[in-house]
Amino acid sequence: AQTVTQSQPEMSVQEAETVTLSCTYDTSESNYYLFWYKQPPSRQMILVIRQEAYKQQNATENRFSVNFQKAAKSFSLKISDSQLGDTAMYFCAFMKHEGSNYQLIWGAGTKLIIKP
Amino acid sequence: NAGVTQTPKFQVLKTGQSMTLQCAQDMNHEYMSWYRQDPGMGLRLIHYSVGAGITDQGEVPNGYNVSRSTTEDFPLRLLSAAPAQTSVYFCASSYSTGSGEKLFFGSGTQLSVL
Fold it and tell me: Collapsing DSSP states into helix, strand and coil, what is residue B45?
């Protein structure tokens, strides 16, 4: 069964620093999608970034970028120039494909605190 | 554009009571799903639907029913609430899932079962 592991339950950094959140996953599939979602205290789930496994180029969205290492099954999120508004839970998710069904498998999350 | 609307935002039930969590989307999305979120765990899929009239079970379906009579609505029914169903529930939708499209989430329902 596919699993997603986020090994850092909680992290904190000073504002303007760079922080990297770790995510590893287990799958035997060769084509799949990976996601990072953010959940601020408002509870709203917000897509941060998305990566297609067949693309070698790492996805970027402004201050957010990923380090996708397919062979190592690693998908870390880097946040540059961190801001107070980045304080949130961050979830890594893997999209698995079973027949005609696509389902997301989620990690347990990393609580990120940005300190002023 | 309202997106995904979930009601209620908070609910307290007694053990054995039944209730329906409502979910509606106005984006003409084919795919809709229900997740529960528990502390220290990732989201877990309860039920999902790939179109009107089509539903299927996710990872943790026991104790929940769903139906999809229209494209817009996907209610989740708790048949006989139990304390183990205390959780935050999220409805999510996307146009499809085959191309790895992002999910649009509702704002969640905090449910407590006493």
Answer: strand
Query: What letter would DSSP give residue A110?
Result: E
Q: What is the pLDDT of residues A54-66, one digit of tens each?
A: 888 999 999 999 9
SS3 B85: helix
Residue A95 is nearest to which of B42, B58, B100, comparing CB atoms? B100
Range 44-63 of A in CB contact (< 8 A) with B: 44-47, 50, 52
Q: What is the C-alpha separation between A102 and B37, in angstroms, rounded?
A: 19
Residues of A in contact with B51 (CB under 8 A): none
Tokens at B77, concatenated: 């029914």
Q: What residue type is B11 in one-letter code?
A: Q
Residue B83 preceded by cis peptide, ω within 30:
no
Determine contact: A111 vs chain B, CB below 8 A: no
